[in-house]
Specification:
Belongs to the ATP-dependent AMP-binding enzyme family. The chain is an alpha/beta fold. The strands form five sheets. It has an eight-stranded mixed sheet with strand order 4-3-13-12-14-15-16-17. An eight-stranded mixed sheet has the order 9-8-7-5-6-10-11-20, sandwiched between helices. Strands 1, 2, 18, 19, 21, 22 and 23 form a seven-stranded antiparallel sheet that branches. Helix 13 packs across helix 14. It contains 22 helices and 28 strands. The two termini are about 40 Å apart. Among the domains are: about 220 residues, Rossmann fold (3-Layer(aba) Sandwich), CATH 3.40.50.12780; about 130 residues, ANL, C-terminal domain (GMP Synthetase, Chain A, domain 3). The protein is globular and about 70 Å long. The N terminus is likely disordered.
C-alpha cells in the first residue's frame, strides 16, 4: 500500500468508523423504551423475522471446486481448476503480452473512463495536540481520462523516452506512490520492450541503491517526493542517466542538481510527453517470453530480491483471476490505493483494465472521510468514488472492523443491542443456520443498521479481493455481514505473479484461500521434518508448490537462490516451492496452516508455529500489531505487542490508572497484565497449546510502520528487523 506520510502522527489508515452514525434509531426511542416508539420498532422487526423463519434455507449440495490432476515433478497431491482441461495462458486470443492486452482494451473501450484522479484543492500543515506538524488536504471530484486519452499519453511518453535516449532492453525503475502516472509509465516502457523495475516508495537507502545498481537501471520515473531522495544519493547510483519526475500541483520549484547527478537528464513527466508528441516513433512490442517486470520484494528478511516476471507470466495470472471475479464489466469501478510495486495491486490494475473497468486512485491517508490527511468536511476517496470493487491486505480490513466496533461500543444502549441482534442473525444466515436472517428480515437490517456502515466504503462495494497475508475468520465474517460483500481470498506470491488460488465468491467458509485458478496447478509435497504428509487423514497436507505459466523465471542475478526454490519437471512445467504448508479440503479448496521458516523447536522438543500463533494474537482486544518470539534454549514463548491506544487508554481510565502519556501507560505492570490476560483468553479460544501461548509480553507504544522498517509496505512484520530493534526487550523477557 502507499506508505504513511512521515509527518502524520497516526497509522496509515485511521479507524474509518470515527464519527460514524451507526443506526437510524432516534434518541427518543431509547429514552421511551416502554412507549409507542419502542412498540413500533419491535413490531417492525418481529414481522420480517417471522417471514425469515418461514423461508428457511435448504441445504445445497456443494460442488467440487478443484479436481485431482496428474502432473510431473516431485510426487505429491496436485489439483487444478475443473472449469478448464488445460491451463489458461491468455485472457483472450492475441493478448499474450501486457502491451497487447492494453492495446486491445483501449481499442474496445475508447470512450470508457479508465484512470481517475482527485482534484487537489488545498494543502495545509497543522499541528497535532502534542505539537507535531502534519498535513491536511482538501480534495475535489475525480477527474477522468478515457481509455483513448490514456492510450495517447502512453504513446507520447513512450516516444518521449526514446527521444531522451532510452533503448530496447534497458531497465526503467518506477519509484513512486500509486497514481495514474505510475500506470501510464509502466505501459509506456512496455511499449518499448523495456523492463520495468518496481521499487517500494518506503524502501531505505541501502535497499534502494542495491535495487538500482543490481538491475543497472538507466532511467528513473519517480514522483516529486522521491525525486529529492534519488538526486541526493546520485553518487551511489552507478548506471542512472535520466530521471523523469511526475508533476505535483503543490510543488512548483525546479529540482536542484548536485554532485554526480549534474550529468543526468532530469525532465518533468509532461515535458517528456510533449517531446514524444512532437517526435512520434513506431512501437517496439515485446514477446511473451520477454521480462516485463523485475519486482523487488519488500524485504521482510534481508535485502530485497528481484523477481523476474515475463509478459506471459503476468497475462496468465490476469487470465486466471479474470475468471474468478464474477461479471467484471465496464460498469465496475475499482479503487486503487495499495502500492503498485506490490504484485497484488499491479495484477489487479492490469486485470481491471483488461475488463474495460474504471480505476480511481486514492491513498491510505485519504481513504475515508475520517482518514488522517482528510480535512474535516472533505469526502474521503471511498465516499467520492463509490467503488464497486476493492483490494485490501488483511491489516486494512482489520482496521475497518476495529473502527466500526469502536463506534458500536461507544454508542452503547439500544443502538448496540440492535447492532448485536442484527449482526448475530445475519452471521447465522451466512454460516448456514436455519435461524439466520434472510429475505425481508435481511432487508430490514440492511436499511436500519448496516446502510450507514456500508457508506464508509462508498456504499456500492460488491466484492473485496484480499491477499498478501492470511485473513482472520472474524474479520472476513465482519465484512460479509456489515458490508454485505463477499471476500475473495487469494493465495499467491511475487514469484508466481500472485497466481495460485482464489476463493469463489459464493464460498462462505472462512480460513481457506479457494481452489487453484485456471492458470495454475497447486501441489502438496511431503515435508517429513515437520511431519506433514500428503497421506495424512482426513486431509492431505504438505508444502505448497505452484506450477504453470504464472511461475516466474527466478531471482535476478541470484541463480543459487533460484535453483533452491524453482524446479522444471520432465514435462517442461515450472514449479515454485513456496515454503508455506497447506492442506486440501475435500472440495479442493486450499487452507494455509503453517510456514516452514516460522516453526521453532523449544527446549523440551515442542514445535511452535510463529505465524499461526500471531494470527490468533491479532484477535486480541488490545492488539494493533504483534510478534511472537520463541527461543530454542527456553521452554516458553514471549511476545512484543503494540497495543491499540484507544482501547488500552479506555481500560486505564475505567480502572482509575493515571498516566501522562501512552508510553508511560505501556510501561505499567497493570496494563501489561491486562493485555496478557486478554491474550491468554484469546489463545485458549483459538485452541492453542500451553507452550504456544506467550508467557510474558512487552508493550511498545510506537506503531510499526513501513518507514520504521519494522513492517513491509503490505504491513507484514519484518521479523529479523524487529528482533534486532528490540533485542534488549526480548532479552529481559527471558530473565
Amino acid at each position: 500500500m502507499a506508505t504513511a506520510d512521515s509527518n502524520s502522527p497516526a497509522s496509515p489508515l485511521d479507524s474509518p468508523g470515527d464519527a460514524l452514525p451507526l443506526l437510524t434509531v432516534s434518541p427518543k426511542s431509547e429514552e421511551n423504551s416502554t412507549g409507542g416508539t419502542m412498540t413500533a420498532v419491535v413490531v417492525s422487526i418481529l414481522i420480517p423475522v417471522l417471514v425469515s423463519l418461514a423461508l428457511r434455507r435448504r441445504g445445497q449440495k456443494k460442488k467440487s471446486a478443484a479436481v485431482i490432476v496428474d502432473v510431473g515433478g516431485e510426487p505429491g497431491y496436485a489439483m487444478r481448476n475443473p472449469r478448464y482441461l488445460s491451463l489458461l495462458e491468455t485472457p483472450w486470443e492475441g493478448a499474450n503480452t501486457i502491451a497487447a492486452l492494453f492495446e486491445d482494451s483501449c481499442k474496445n473501450n475508447p470512450s470508457q473512463p479508465l484512470l481517475g484522479t482527485r482534484e487537489l484543492i488545498q494543502r495545509e500543515t497543522i499541528k497535532s495536540s502534542d505539537g507535531r506538524p502534519f498535513e491536511k488536504v482538501t480534495l475535489g471530484k475525480y477527474v477522468w481520462q478515457s481509455y483513448s486519452q490514456v492510450y495517447e499519453r502512453v504513446v507520447n511518453l513512450s516516444a518521449g523516452l526514446v527521444a531522451l535516449g532510452l533503448k530496447k532492453g534497458e531497465k526503467v525503475a518506477i519509484f513512486a506512490e500509486t497514481r495514474a502516472e505510475w500506470f501510464i509509465g509502466l505501459q509506456a516502457c512496455l511499449r518499448r520492450n523495456a523492463t520495468v523495475v518496481t521499487i517500494y516508495a518506503s524502501l531505505g537507502d541501502e535497499a534502494l541503491s542495491h535495487s538500482f545498481n543490481e538491475t543497472e537501471v538507466t532511467t528513473v520515473i519517480c514522483d516529486r517526493k522521491q525525486l529529492k531522495k534519488v538526486l541526493d544519493m546520485s553518487a551511489q547510483l552507478e548506471t542512472v542517466k535520466r530521471v523523469v519526475f511526475m508533476d505535483d500541483d503543490a510543488i512548483k520549484s525546479e529540482p536542484t542538481l548536485s554532485g554526480a547527478s549534474s550529468s543526468w537528464i532530469v525532465e518533468p513527466f509532461a515535458k517528456v510527453e510533449s517531446l514524444g508528441k512532437e517526435s512520434p516513433v513506431e512501437p517496439d512490442f515485446p514477446s511473451p517470453s520477454d521480462v516485463a517486470v523485475i519486482m523487488y520484494t519488500s524485504g521482510s528478511t534481508g535485502l530485497p530480491k528481484g523477481v523476474m516476471m515475463t509478459h506471459g507470466n503476468i497475462v496468465a495470472t490476469v487470465a486466471g483471476v479474470s475468471t474468478a471475479i464474477p461479471n467484471l464489466t465496464p460498469h465496475d469501478i475499482y479503487l486503487a490505493y495499495l502500492p503498485l510495486a506490490h504484485v497484488l495491486e499491479l495484477v489487479a490494475e492490469i486485470t481491471f483494465c483488461a475488463g474495460g473497468s474504471s480505476i480511481g486512485y486514492g491513498s491510505p491517508m485519504t481513504l475515508t472521510d475520517t482518514s488522517n490527511k482528510i480535512k474535516k468536511g472533505t469526502k474521503g476517496d471511498t465516499s467520492e468514488l463509490q467503488p464497486t470493487l476493492m483490494t485490501a491486505v488483511p491489516a486494512i480490513l482489520d482496521r475497518v472492523r476495529d473502527g466500526v466496533r469502536k463506534q458500536v461500543d461507544n454508542a452503547g444502549g439500544l443502538k448496540k443491542k440492535m447492532f448485536d441482534l442484527a449482526y448475530n442473525r445475519r452471521l447465522a444466515a451466512i454460516e448456514g443456520s436455519w435461524f439466520g436472517a434472510i429475505g425481508p428480515e435481511k432487508t430490514l437490517w440492511d436499511q436500519v443498521v448496516f446502510k450507514k456502515i456500508r457508506a464508509v466504503l462508498g456504499g456500492r462495494v460488491r466484492g473485496v479481493l484480499s491477499g498478501g497475508a492470511p485473513l482472520s475468520g472474524d474479520t472476513q465474517r465482519f465484512m460479509n455481514v456489515c458490508f454485505g460483500a463477499p471476500i475473495g481470498q487469494g493465495y499467491g506470491l511475487t514469484e508466481t505473479c500472485a497466481g495460485g488460488t482464489f476463493s469463489e465468491w459464493t464460498d462462505t467458509s472462512v480460513g481457506r484461500v479457494g481452489p487453484p485458478i485456471p492458470s495454475a496447478y497447486v501441489k502438496l509435497v511431503n515435508w517429513d521434518e515437520g511431519g506433514y504428509k500428503t497421506t495424512d487423514s482426513p486431509m492431505p497436507r504438505g508444502e505448497i508448490v505452484i506450477g504453470g505459466p504464472t511461475v516466474t523465471l527466478g531471482y535476478f542475478k541470484n541463480q543459487a537462490k533460484t535453483d533452491e526454490v524453482y524446479k522444471v519437471d520432465e514435462r517442461g512445467i515450472r514449479w515454485f516451492y513456496t515454503g508455506d504448508i497447506g492442506r486440501f479440503h475435500p472440495d479442493g479448496c486450499l487452507e494455509i496452516i503453517d510456514r516452514k521458516k516460522d516453526i521453532v523447536k523449544l527446549q523440551h522438543g515442542e514445535y511452535v508455529s510463529l505465524g499461526k500463533v500471531e494470527a490468533v494474537l491479532m484477535g486480541g482486544h488490545y492488539v494493533d500489531s504483534g510478534m511472537l518470539h520463541a527461543d530454542p534454549f527456553h521452554s516458553y514463548t514471549v511476545a512484543l505487542i503494540v497495543p491499540n491506544q484507544s482501547a488500552l487508554e479506555k481500560w486505564a481510565k475505567q480502572s482509575n490508572i493515571s498516566f501522562d502519556s501512552f508510553a508511560e501507560l505501556c510501561d505499567k505492570k497493570e496494563a501489561e497484565q491486562e493485555v496478557l490476560s486478554d491474550l491468554v483468553k484469546v489463545c485458549k479460544q483459538g485452541k492453542l497449546e500451553k507452550t504456544e501461548i506467550p508467557a510474558k509480553i512487552k508493550l511498545l507504544s510506537e506503531p510499526w510502520t513501513p518507514e520504521s522498517g519494522l513492517v513491509t509496505a503490505a504491513l507484514k512484520i519484518k521479523r529479523e528487523n524487529i528482533r534486532k530493534t528490540f533485542a534488549e526487550e526480548l532479552k529481559k523477557l527471558y530473565v
